[in-house]
Amino acid sequence: MEESVDSGITWLRRVKLILRSEGQWEIKMVCLVSRTGRHLQRYDNLGRRQVVGCIPYRFKCSRDGTISDELEVLVISSQKGQKMMFPKGGWELDESIEEAALRESIEEAGVIGNVECELGKWYFISKSHGTFYEGCMFPLLVKEELDFWPEHNVRQRTWMNVKEARDVCQHWWMKEALDILVERLASLQQ
Questions:
Q1: How many other C-beta atoms are found inside a 10 Å radius of the C-beta of residue 135?
Q2: What are phi and psi of 168, to 5 degrees?
Q3: Cross-strand pairs, 49
Q4: Distance from C-alpha of 88 to C-alpha of 92, rounded to nearest angstrom
Q5: Hey, how many other C-beta atoms are within 10 angstroms of the C-beta on 95?
Q6: Do 168 and 84 contact (CB within 8 A), yes or no?
């Protein structure tokens, strides 16, 4: 499904995304090629790089096709395959925070869905780079899993129950976000 474009960029696939913006629904076309570089990267007023991520989730289907209330979340491997985490990456100047969250989920995990209300903000230091970050996480109710996505050659994705995901996730702040999501969904079911 490759389509050549005059600018020399090869688009792997275009996806229609329906985004809610200021009370209005709009359709946008998104190319499934990972962004690179830091020239559009956002930083807060203290110089911390701003990153955004999602916890992709769904409710498990039973063998007869009915949806249960059993929650599953999608975890991905790091690019080097050593660690498991939720999709996250830089929030860039030319997009809203929700658009960045959805873009990262598409690029890293190959899932499309509804970005829901923010789970929170966390401040942390990268162990590998010693860099300060501000991280924001959102739930993503998954509507579609793509067979091919920009990082499908460098990342694995796995659906897990909450306990399994909590056990394998390498980042304390993502575990806290997962706990908040579970509490939020439990309160909605009561």
A1: 21
A2: -95, -20
A3: 43, 133
A4: 12
A5: 16
A6: yes
- The answer to whether the CB of 51 falls within 8 A of the CB of 11 is no
Nearest to 113 by CA among 178, 12, 19: 19
Side-chain half-sphere of 133: how many Cα atoms within 13 Å? 24
Share of the chain above pLDDT 70, in %: 76
CA distances in angstroms from 127 to 11, 54, 131, 135, 171, listed in the order given: 34, 21, 8, 15, 10
pLDDT digits (tens, 9 = 90+) for 74-121: 999 998 878 999 999 999 999 999 999 999 999 999 999 999 999 999
Residue 162 · residue 71 · CB < 8 Å: yes
Q: In the block, which residue shows the tokens 């769904």?
A: 58
- pLDDT tier for residue 68 given thresholds of 50, 70 and 90: low
Residues 6+ apart with CB under 8 A from 92: 35, 40, 41, 42, 100
142-170 pLDDT tens trace: 999 999 999 999 999 999 999 999 999 99
Which residues contact residue 80 at a Cβ distance below 8 angstroms, ignoring those fewer than 6 apart? none
pTM: 0.79
More confident position, 45 or 6: 45
How many whole angstroms from its chain centre is CA 40? 19
| Side chain identity, residue 30 | V
Architecture of the structural domain at 35-189: Alpha-Beta Complex (3.90)
